[in-house]
Amino acid sequence: MNLRLLAFLPLSALFPQAAAQPAPAEEVRRPAAVSTMDETGLAELSAQPEKVQSLIRSALALTRMNLTYLFGSNDPGRGGMDCSGTIHHLLSSSGIKDVPRQSDAMCDWIAGKGRLHRIKLAASLDHPEFAHLKPGDLVFWSGTYESARRSTPVTHVMLFLGTNKKSGKPVVFGASDGRRYEGQRRTGVSIFDLVLPGPESKASLHGYGSVPGLVNAAPASLTEPRPQSHPPARKDP
Q1: Are 87 and 154 in contact (CB under 8 A)?
Q2: d(CA 73, CA 89)
Q3: Fold of 51-214
Q4: 98: left (phi over 0), alpha (psi -120 to 50) or beta
Q5: For 156-205, what is each residue's pLDDT tens digit?
């Protein structure tokens, strides 16, 4: 080859194996920015069944691993997980059997056991539709991102932890790239404030329910509302 021509060729042409390869879409990640808390900071935890307490302790332990949001992952060994992957890992590693992987399937799983409480009218968290919400329940959202059409329009899931003693606000555990805790945007496996989407948002809170196999629970249609143990929270801006 003409040596003068070599001087004008890019290195990738001379050494194709050295050319930079883009990372797969699911590997593109933002640095983790997470929050955690001690279990003693949860107002209702000591009154919960031992299995619920253990589940919440395991959830809080995951928030201390500095895991980012990683689409398609349910393995903390990869450095991050997505929302349903986080809940799938938490429940499966806690001994819950037959946990679905996707958020809409998790909602169907709970609904199939008669444990789903739908949210249809509530404009705030002090509405009677939230009267049955208790620590250890899964909370489901719809419309949080564009997805393929689903028979159950759920796109996001988190675990309800209870009330933060310090702030007096209800808090949830899970994975997100953008939800907030105490006014700070969080990325990764973290705790978050439980807030309703604002009226301008495409998202809505779909419902909540207890985890099958965690504790015995009466079907949603047979339970009576109870006084709430957590105060109302502001809407998501």
Answers
A1: no
A2: 10
A3: endopeptidase fold (from Nostoc punctiforme) (3.90.1720)
A4: left
A5: 999 999 999 999 999 999 999 999 999 999 999 999 999 999 888 899 99
